[in-house]
Amino acid sequence: MASISISDGANGATKPSENGIASPNAAASTSPTTASRNPRYYLDDSMAIFLVESQLYKVHRYFFRLESVIFDSMFDCPAPDVGQDGNTDNQPIEIPEVTCQQFEALLDHFYDGKQAYFNDSTPLQKYIDLLSISHRFECTTARERAIKGIDAATTNPIQMIDLAEVYDVPKWLTPAYVELCRREEPLNESEAMDLGPRKTIIICRARETIRTSPETRRLLDYNGYYGYWSTWPQNILEESRVQRIVNECLANLPETPNPLQPAVSEATSQSGQGWGGKKKAKGKKKAAV
Question: Where are stretches of biased composition, namely Low complexity (predicted)?
Answer without folding.
Answer: 22-35
